[in-house]
Amino acid sequence: MRKKLDALETYRAFAALMIAAVHFKVNSPIVDHFLATGIFVPFFFTLSGFVIYYNYFDKINNFSNLIDFGKKRFLRLYPLHFFFLLIFLFVEFLRFFAEREYGLLSNIEPFTKNNTIAFLCNLFLLQTFLAENTFNTPSWSISAEYYTYLFFGFLFIKNIKNIFFTILIIIILIVLFRISSAISFGQSTTFYSFIDCIYCFLIGVIFCKFYFLLDNNRYFLKHSNLISFFMIVLNLISIKYFSGNYQFFFPFLFGGLILFSSEINKDTIYGRFICNKFFVYLGKISYSIYLSHLFIFWLVTQILRFIFNVDTYFDKETSSTLLNLDIFTSTIIALVCYTITIIFSSITYKYIEIKFYKKGNFLQKK
Questions:
Q1: DSSP string, 298-356
Q2: Distance (Å, rounded) from C-alpha 87 to C-alpha 338?
Q3: What angle do CA 163, 251, 154 make, to 5 degrees?
Q4: How many domains are there within the chain?
Q5: Does residue 148 have a pLDDT over 70?
Q6: Neighbours of 231 (CB within 10 A)
Q7: Is the pTM of this model over 0.70?
Q8: 322 forms bridges with which residues in the sheet?
Q9: How far is the C-alpha of 189 from the C-alpha of 154, rounded, in Å?
Q10: Mean per-residue pLDDT for 242-257?
Q11: Burial class, 152, CB count within 10 angstroms (exposed 0-12 / middle 13-18 / buried 19+)
């Protein structure tokens, strides 16, 4: 059993909360800031590459291992995704019923974007290849990540000589392809999203290899806290001031942060803060936070609109109907949404995630 890297759980929690902030569309400084950005999805991909290599680099040696690995990852991702797919399908029927029976028109006509093809693609984890995000929109990354897992496993069962040189070549080819395609990094639709996921994931794998090389290095252990703090500052500055093509470099910054945070000394003030139990717990339920937050915000919005008659306005930029609230009230709503999301995620983590994930521990038993 490999040791737990608690700092990475904290980072996972922070990333999930910042992605939730992107979708909590209210006028509040809690969610309207430079860290409310989709760049944290590539962070998740990079972190996944690091963690998956950390846990499985020596366990995928043949096709049978790959099948077991695929089953384990499927049971980790799919049940919760399927649960929310059914919820959003029910929401679509509600919208259809509200329009037909009460004349309540939606910004997008029911079952147009979220149609049969979109449902089938979501059902079979193919939604990342669609031209637009559908149903539970953040779930596109689950699709991209699952097939990236299989691609990773395939590389390792092939027993490629100099596999890390091969991975480096793949990364370079992806960069060249993305530059030639003239489409910005971080695309969340079509096959570009899958390619970006592979890119970030493999960078995470490389940084995990560095971690294994440095793990017993005295200098690395002695200065990991200081360098980790420096990497946090560097990442924050980069997210604040760099965008566009510069985002290609973010997975390397993320990888450096993950690498030097893996050996944080928990006996220091800094270590106790980063690895405190509450943050680590939020990291454990971060997948539920990631998949549930959009539904929670939608639900809270509908309650405020139709039960409390809160005024709304149409935002042309996002093509969405938003709540017309002052900053103070918006902040209260944002806090309520975060609180409900965390509570709801604790429940889905316990009764859906863990329940099925334990059934997938094939490799752990061998």
A1: HHHHHHHHHTS---EEEETTTTEEEE---HHHHHHHHHHHHHHHHHHHHHHIIIIIHHH
A2: 19
A3: 30
A4: 1
A5: yes
A6: 19
A7: yes
A8: 313
A9: 24
A10: 89
A11: buried
- Is residue 1 included in any domain, yes or no? no
Mean pLDDT of the 305-318 span: 87
Asked if 27 and 178 count as a contact pair (C-beta separation under 8 A), the reply is: no
Q: Which residue is listed with tokens 């919005």?
A: 301
Please report whether residue 224 resides in a domain.
Answer: yes
The token pair that represents 210 in the structure block: 């560095």
Q: Is the pLDDT of residue 364 over 60?
A: no
Q: Which residues lie below 8 Å from residue 343, measured CB to CB, with a gap of 6+?
A: none
Nearest 5°: the CA angle 196, 202, 204 is 105
Distances (CA, A) of 181 to 30, 252, 261: 36, 21, 34
Structure tokens at 103: 């004349």
Could you tell me if 188 and 129 are in contact, meaning their C-beta atoms sit under 8 angstroms apart? Answer: no
Separate counts of helices (H) and strands (E) for the chain = 14, 2
Burial 298-335 (b: 16+ CB within 10 A, else e): eebbeebeeeeeeeeeeeeeeeeeebebeeebbbebbe
Q: Please give the residue range of the domain that contains residue 184.
A: 6-365
- Residue 241 to residue 34: CA distance in whole angstroms: 9
Structure tokens at 222: 């002695």
Single-letter residue type at 252? F
Q: What values do phi and psi take at 330, rounded to 5?
A: -60, -40
C-beta atoms surrounding 38 within 10 Å: 15
* Separation of alpha carbons 313 and 303, rounded Å: 16
294 in a structural domain: yes
